[in-house]
Design a protein that fits this description.
The structure holds 2 protein chains of 2 kinds. In chain A, the strands form 2 sheets. Chain A has a 3-stranded antiparallel sheet with strand order 1-4-5. Chain A has a two-stranded antiparallel ribbon with strand order 2-3. Helices cover about 15% and strands about 25% of the residues of chain A. Chain A is globular and about 30 Å long. Chain A is of the alpha+beta class. By secondary structure, chain B is an alpha/beta fold. Chain B has 17 helices and 10 strands. In chain B, the strands form 2 sheets. Chain B has a 5-stranded mixed sheet with strand order 3-2-1-5-4, with helices on both faces. A 5-stranded mixed sheet of chain B has the order 7-6-10-8-9. In chain B, a hairpin with a 5-residue loop joins strand 6 and strand 7. Chain B is globular. Chain B starts with about 25 loop residues before the first helix and ends in a 17-residue tail after the last helix. Classes of the chains: A alpha+beta, B alpha/beta. At the A-B interface, strand 5 of A face helix 3 and helix 13 of B.
């Protein structure tokens, strides 16, 4: 299983809140009006509205990110050493798409 | 987890520095630690050997995150461009003095480590970063760099740089951004591990103490490094003990030492709680007294050694009052970029103020828990995560105080208590450059 996930850049975000209106199934707002995005891949029927949310954000703070299960080919490293943070991704291997 | 036999004072990094205010110049440094084994310029296997030695030693970063140093070096080495090295001695933690102690007293040990790593990585430059307000350490480092240049010990340009003051300005992405000409504020890194860059170059940010350990591992080997400490957490580490102790200060301890032994060595008497790691660390109650200072034993208590901060709270102090002041300070020290941090931390501090000094109800406590969850993992850096962790641990460690405050309002200690935790003065509108 692989898919795409909606993410927010918290530095860019200015709490316009359009995302929560466009994709309430994926985005809620906290008590200060900032988006809380579901930590999961979009379901097929949600992809269209997630992409619309990305396009509509006045601060361009939203983006889609590819998520893959850890079983997909990991990048093998010589010496058995892992890069920083590679153990702390909660089993998800994250690859950010170029924008 | 067994505690090692080693005494509380295990001078490796601090060898020869027992006298307060002492500083090792290059000659004194070499007399104490011996000459630095530097590779021949054509030695292509040096990087492999250094990284292997650091890996075998089991050295982990001493800046707070505790990531394995060898893996970080390997990760930077695999980048296409030549990297630059940032030696991080900024030490934004107000209760930490270890990096200052090293920079002021043993600058050559830190610079030895930097030189080794710079040569192994083929670094295009080294920035030694020290707080602006710490002129003593900055002067010590600047003098040490000049001495090394005169002795032909440097292979690349080494510059002492002084980023602006602040709790967060030494965070690795903030520091890198500042070195790149931007604000000393954290940057959003969507995909981890992220390679930090300044002037287009991969930037290896390494804590000053970590590099000092590298300098000793290169001299004495990984087996020597592992000869103290535990198998899981080998070697020594610097801690800064403060608060309700008779002899506050920086101490070098073997990892795995019991928390109570560290406190006893600093002359703590009846302590009610300890703040461990840093201001975004964990409050531990007296039931944690026997806990070994090692990652696994601490993780079982939801804690970590962090930057080595140990603040003892006397039995007569009000933990809720301390936590309220601490949370307010951490809110003020937000970089002001991410909504959940900008609004969440002051809200959390407000709830704590009500718990400590007002007439709180159960709703206040519930709201506080909710807000801790609401700020967690929602910033560009881990600043809000640290606050959430610290506040949650306080509600556990000070559960008895909490019940008293809920039933009877502020305790006398909350009303009268002098602050055990130290806070730098208000910075207000701060320069980020």
């Amino acid at each position: 299983m692989s898919g795409r996930r909606l993410r927010v850049d918290p530095v860019a975000c200015d709490a316009f809140g359009h995302c929560a209106e466009l994709v309430p199934e994926l985005v809620g707002l906290d008590e200060w009006g900032y988006p809380v995005v579901e930590d999961r891949a979009c379901r097929p029927h949600e992809v269209g509205s997630a992409e619309l949310a990305v396009k509509s954000c006045p601060r361009r703070a939203l983006f889609m990110e590819a998520v893959a299960e850890p079983d997909s080919p990991p990048s093998r490293r010589a010496g058995g050493l892992r890069p920083p943070g590679s153990t702390a991704t909660g089993g998800l291997r994250r690859v950010t798409q170029r924008r | 987890m067994t505690t090692v036999e080693a005494p509380p004072a295990a001078a490796r990094l601090l060898k020869g520095l027992d006298e307060v205010g002492r500083r090792h110049d290059l000659a004194a440094h070499q007399a104490v630690h011996g000459p630095l084994p530097l590779p021949d310029r054509r030695d292509r296997s040096f990087a492999d050997r250094l990284i292997r030695a650091v890996a075998d030693a089991g050295l982990s970063g001493r800046g707070g995150a505790g990531f394995p140093t060898a893996a970080k070096l390997e990760w930077i080495r695999r980048q296409r461009r030549r990297p630059v090295l940032a030696v991080n001695a900024c030490e934004g933690e107000p209760a930490s003095r270890k990096d200052h102690t090293l920079a002021a007293g043993a600058p050559h040990l830190v610079l030895d480590g930097a030189e080794l790593v710079a040569r192994a990585m083929g670094a295009a430059g080294v920035s030694v970063c020290i707080r602006r307000a710490d002129q003593r350490a900055a002067g010590s480092l600047t003098a040490a760099v000049a001495e090394r240049e005169a002795s032909g010990l440097v292979s690349t340009e080494v510059a002492v740089r002084q980023p602006p003051e602040g709790y967060i300005t030494g965070e690795e992405s903030a520091l890198t951004h500042w070195l790149d000409g931007g604000d000393a504020r954290p940057t959003f890194r969507p995909n981890r591990p992220a390679v930090l860059r300044s002037h287009g170059r991969p930037t290896l940010v390494s804590n000053a103490e970590t590099l000092a350990h590298v300098a000793l591992i290169a001299r004495h080997g990984p087996a020597w490094f592992r000869s103290v400490g535990t198998a899981e957490a080998p070697g020594t580490t610097l801690v800064t003990v403060s608060g309700a102790v008779r002899a506050p200060g920086v101490r070098e301890i073997t990892l795995g030492l019991g928390l109570d032994e560290v406190l006893a060595a600093a002359g703590a008497e009846a302590w009610g709680a300890v703040l461990l790691g840093g201001y975004g660390g964990t409050w531990l109650g007296p039931e944690a007294r026997g806990t070994a200072l090692s990652p696994t034993a601490l993780a079982a208590r939801g804690a970590s050694l962090g930057a080595g901060v140990v603040v003892a709270l006397g039995a007569g102090s009000c933990g809720l009052a301390e936590t309220a002041r601490l949370a307010a300070y951490m809110g003020e020290e937000s970089a002001g970029q991410c909504g959940p941090c900008v609004f969440g931390l002051p809200a959390i501090a407000g709830d704590l103020r009500e718990l400590a000094f007002g007439r709180p109800t159960g709703t206040t406590v519930e709201r506080l828990w909710t807000r801790c969850a609401a700020v967690e993992r929602r910033g560009a850096c881990h600043h809000p995560d640290g606050v959430a962790r610290m506040v949650r641990s306080a509600l556990g460690a000070f559960a008895d105080d909490l019940h008293r405050h809920l039933s009877a309002g502020p305790c006398p200690a909350a009303a009268a208590a002098p602050t055990v935790l130290a806070f730098p003065g208000p910075t207000g509108e701060r320069p980020w450059r």
